[in-house]
């Protein structure tokens, strides 16, 4: 009986000494049942992989020249933009409540999807689809995109008349019916840089 009691008391102590010699803390050698919830949480946290960076888009309006505004790719918590490009919105009108003419209303927009081979009737190729938005007087702005002028495959179309809708021909192409427009090379750059953590929102100011 004495021998059995001695072994019962001695074994845990010896195990503790042995484990401590390997660098483990005293807490680590306590019975597993002592703190099951905390232990599980610790191991779960240790096994987590870091998430992708949280990015968003920010469109800064230029009242003097709406077609020379800026679109920024931002990182949450950072003031400096990851990248920035010239962009336009609307046909030059600063009336955000004027459908198919004025620039986008201020506020936050959800990004519904992005696609490299979009095949719409008026917009093709690289696009970012934005949610509908009501302006200050309640007018709903719809069919809102960030896009350029290109064919479905992302290439430039042939010259066709004075202004081909599938070919970027100059600064006048920054104008739109309301959408945000970028040069073909710039929207492709936006897609490349956004691949590290696709933006889910656009902020218009």
Descriptive notes:
The protein is an alpha+beta fold and 205 residues long. It has two domains: 2-46, no CATH class; 55-204, L,D-transpeptidase catalytic domain-like, CATH 2.40.440.10. 20% of the residues lie in helices and 26% in strands. It is built from three helices and ten strands; from the N terminus they run H-H-E-E-E-E-E-E-E-E-E-H-E. It has helices at 2-20, 36-46, 184-194; strands spanning 55-60, 69-75, 83-89, 107-119, 124-130, 133-134, 140-141, 144-147, 180-181, 201-204. The strands form two sheets. An eight-stranded mixed β-barrel has the order 1-2-3-9-8-5-4-10. A two-stranded antiparallel sheet has the order 6-7. The radius of gyration is 29 Å and the shape is globular. The termini are far apart. Residues 1-26 form the signal peptide. Keywords: Signal. This is YkuD domain-containing protein. It comes from Kitasatospora albolonga.
Question: What can be said about this structure in brief?
Answer:
This protein is of the alpha+beta class.
Helix and strand layout, with pairings?
Layout: H1 2-20, H2 36-46, E1 55-60, E2 69-75, E3 83-89, E4 107-119, E5 124-130, E6 133-134, E7 140-141, E8 144-147, E9 180-181, H3 184-194, E10 201-204
Keywords: Signal
Signal peptide: 1-26
Protein name: YkuD domain-containing protein
Under CATH, the topology of the largest domain is which? L,D-transpeptidase catalytic domain-like
**Low confidence ranges:** 1-37, 39-46
Widest β-sheet, arrangement of strands: 1-2-3-9-8-5-4-10
Described by the principal axes of the CA atoms, the overall outline is globular
> So, CATH architecture of the largest domain?
Beta Barrel
Run of helices and strands: HHEEEEEEEEEHE
Strand fraction band? 25-35%
Largest sheet report: 8 strands, mixed, barrel
Please identify the structural class as seen in this structure.
alpha+beta
Question: What would CATH call the homologous superfamily of the largest domain?
Answer: L,D-transpeptidase catalytic domain-like
Query: How many domains make up the coordinates?
Result: 2
- The CA-CA distance between the termini, in Å, is 82 Å
| Integer-rounded radius of gyration | 29 Å
Total of helices: 3
Could you estimate the helical fraction of the residues in percent?
A: 10-25%
Mean pLDDT: 83
Organism: Kitasatospora albolonga
Protein name: YkuD domain-containing protein
Keywords: Signal
Signal peptide: 1-26
